[in-house]
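Hey everyone, long-time lurker, first post.

I ran two proteins through the pipeline my lab uses and got sequence/structure pairs for each. Pasting them in order. The first:
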Amino acid sequence: MTAAPVWSVDPRTGKRRAQVAQEATPEDVDRAVRAAHDARAALAERPVRAALLRTAARLLDEARDEVVETADAETALGAPRLTGELARTTAQLRAFADIVEEGGFLDVRIDHADDTRTPPWPDLRRWKVPLGVVAVYSASNFPLAFSVPGGDTASALAAGCPVVVKAHPDHPATSELCASLLRRAAAEEGLPEDVVVLVHGFDAGVALVGHPLIAAAGFTGSVRGGRALYDAAAARPAPIPFHGELGSLNPVLVTEAASAERGEEIGAGLAASMTLGAGQFCTKPGFVLVPEGAPGDGLVKALTAAVVDAGAGVMLDHRMRDAFVAGVAERAELPGVQAPVRPGPDGDHRVVPGFLTVPADRLATGDAHEALLEECFGPVTVVARYRNEDEAAAVLGRLPGNLTATLHLGADEASGADGRGAALLERLTPLAGRVLVDGWPTGVAVAPAQHHGGPYPATTSTSTSVGGTAIERWLRPVTYQSTPQALLPPELHDDNPLGVPRHVDGRLEQGGSRPAPHAGADTGTPADTDGAAGA
């Protein structure tokens, strides 16, 4: 049986650009995983991993023009956005190199033998080791930052895990180019190129999660596709961790005081956030609670003007465009729903942004309006008008898990003087992994304190896919008991020759000097190296 061709397609026209690869057969997937598995030992040393990550960043930067041009031809995301996303991607690679060198991610803990305890303690030395080969499933909406050279790949390599990446069909040429640069980086550092392997095709993705030598998986995409792979990972004879980012509504609550004080500003900010990248950010604010009455009316008026000015855009592919058009039509037909700016098609290839409004009491109970509480991928948001705080709370109580939740407060509420702001913040906290106050969620800084994840269906685990702690997904702890130091890795020796931070007998030892922090790019706008997380 002949393998199916993989075509690069221009979303601006829907026409094929070129054949760039063939879909992987089951035999191809098996060879890819086994090749990556054989490369594990080459990543054992931390300095080698750090060098690989930095060389990969350098090669991607040097190929910037080609990478951006190729990605734009396949995604229509535009050179400014993609230039920023590439900067975010290479900064992330370098940040993980710093993390690898510093060594704190190993979480070394040493408890010396203590006969005075009851019962006595033996000598115990704990650290974390890589899981093995990681399957990475690329995202559609971030051809760089969440695809072949993105955060899952960078964090897995940092942990010492080779990767097999399943390319997204929306940007196969970009995937091939980036994979070739990562493999070249490995070769320049004297490593097997197969520490990074690329495969194409839907069936390849299914086969990948079931391969017995795959030790974990990272996924960014739809709830339907991610849940199917998650279930397959759990149904294996030996289940594996599946870290999936599946979907998010990213609710926003605007108080009456906030609407009165700066409704125009909030309306304009909402429009900018929900139309960014043609609404194709997984952190897009897709549901907004706005009070009824004059202050809320002013916010909606400002939102209307700003969305009209935003203009039409091209979505990543025609399948997503059709799903967006159908999803908006379904929601607009529900009782009580209005469309002050009707989102929908604009010619054969573009879409216009818009938003829907609905009385909040329609959402507080029952399932008739359930679709309004589900993500609609594209440039649309739902504005629910609430009469009082109890009504808003009832709607919040029906929301699923999210990546983000946002709260816009009045000045007195934000000051904490009356306790209302803190109470509202506490109400939003169970809904999301990142809670914002007086901001917008379409910016995910690559920073040590970042958390990009949330309760299901936002993600399938409690881990983050952005920030330094993303490395923890690909590690497992091991404790050595009463083991001669000569047999242990140097990180577990008493003299700590490599200077890693450790807890010894309950006390923190800082180890060697920490490298200067690598500033991550905030990704809210092209000027901020646009490239936030997305599904």
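...and the second, right after it:
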Amino acid sequence: MPSRSGLSRRGFLTSVAAGTALAALPLRSASAAESVKILIIGSGYAGSVAALRLAQAGLDSLVLERGRRWPITDQGGTFATPAAPDGRASWLNSWSPFVPQPLDVYPGVLEAFQANGVIALAGAGVGGGSLVNNAVMLQPSQNVFKRAFGAHVDFDEMSDQWYTKARALIGMAPMPDDVYNSTHYTAARSFVAETTAAGLAPFRADMAVDWQTVREEQAGTREASLIIARSIWGANSGAKRSVDRTILAAAEATGRVSVETLTRVVDVVPTNGHQRYLVRCERIDDTGAVVARPEYSAEHVFFAAGSLGTSRLLVAARDRGSLPALHATVGKGWGTNSDRQTVRVGMPWNNPTQGGPSGIVAQDLANPYEPVTLINFPWPRPPADGTGALGALAMTTCSPDGHFTYDAATDNVSLTWPSTSPSALRATQAVTTTMDRINAANPGTSTLRLNADTTSHTLGGVVLGQACKADGRLYGYNNLYVIDSSLIPGSMATVPPALTVTALADRCVDLALRRILRNVP
């Protein structure tokens, strides 16, 4: 890996993470910027779908990605591992909530954004969140979907059309029998047995995983990754079907899509009577230092930088006056998908490897507080007493009470999550009730951990039907579209949001294409 600067965390946050003050970046005319018709900010699920659908319609686009490419190699050393963590595990920060020691500052795959009330995680790199998630693809039920979106999105339309297309785009399948029954997945079988005893009817979820590659891991012909729970910083075996290797790869293969890496957008400014937009960027090196400030003049801009990226960018643009007509609700309606990390102990030994990523889902939809979904989560560290341990990521619903705030003095955006609000406490009570139910059905087990201090499912900030129209067009700006997880108001109906984000982005891009191809202003 390239040599990297050893900047202190405090010094680095002051000089880079807060962003270079825009007053130091002189605004050039649009004619001096590189001209593109369509610009996409972000290369995760939403950005990749946009690039592919635009290319299939015969339109060229430029994708800007703040992070690096992470190509899988036969040597199997693309990503950092828990056995040897380094700067590849953290986005431009020497600190990580998963590593006790300081790391080198490097444009790694996982941002850990310290908000007020929660640590919010987000992927960084070509492929976005698909590089670092646990690849579980679930469609929500109709009742909880309507609770999230109300009348703004039709569930039947999504179910009949867009979820079906999203499944085909991502490519997914549940864990096959031979993998499930192997020694690497003892914990998955234990989770099935214990949740079945509690009456929760567990099932194997569809996953964006190449199970043949997992078999090769088991056979020793691929780098062991998923079978030993190495997923959160990427899978060195290539078993994870991240979009850089699927949807975006198909888009780039058309020859109509260009991707610029290590390029982060810092501002968007209307020009030419709002007919075009000047997109101002910073290009960084492997230390996070700014080495160039490219600018692009685009006719259409699609925001696909994820809830954290898109919300922070738009709140800053509105409040510093670059996009003053943005709706007052931009920056509001944010939530954590009610993520709760849980670990139970006291069951028979099941920790030889704890294969992953997740794969088994159990739902407590009749919970007296809120519906709860549990996803088996690898927990490779055994308890001190030598028994087994089972991890699960719990998701439920709560009010989208988080909000972003712009500080003009620092040109920075902060995020506040009221972690002790009545709604958040009710969500914790719901998960506690479900865990108690499982423990009661499995004598000798108990809950070792249940907390909500970290979320990997950041949602909201530019909520559909509030801050933007049904196709993601921002109120006040006809050719600016939001198509990512920012559209989802705080929680995605007790399931991981990746499948819904993909489906919703496809729907929004389809509606946008109808306008673009007709040259509608």
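Reply from user beta_strand_b:
Welcome! Quick read of the second one: Residues 163 and 368 are 29 Å apart (CA to CA). The longest helix spans residues 422-441.
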